[in-house]
Amino acid sequence: MSIFEYNGSALVAMVGKNCFAIASDRRLGVQLQTIATDFQRISKIHDRLLLGLSGLATDAQTLYQKLVFRHKLYQLREDRDMKPETFASLVSALLYEKRELAKDFVVAGTTSESLYGACESMFKENMVCHFSCFPML
Prior knowledge:
alpha+beta; two-stranded antiparallel sheet; 3 helices; proteasome; Proteasome_bsu_CS; Proteasome_suB-type
């Protein structure tokens, strides 16, 4: 088993017409053992930017803290929030890898293969969101 599958996770994000949706499981486990059922995988960077992290829980928490720190430095310097594209570039630079921006949906975690099939069958271009609020994280 890969260390990246040690805690398990499921994340999916989709974009629609003037909206988006992001969802994750809340289970924190060590292989087949459940440790908690309220683990936060989706984090709010600012009012218009959410981040979903899968993988080893401690790595996800550390990465989140680094990204929040860098966003706060950006806010102090620029006196505004980061745009999602700028934040994506920051994540790419931090992870030493070029990431492509998806135009429809992304999935992550140990359940990626299953989520790809579900998203491919359900995604339609310019989908309309049927909800008007997003719960605070």
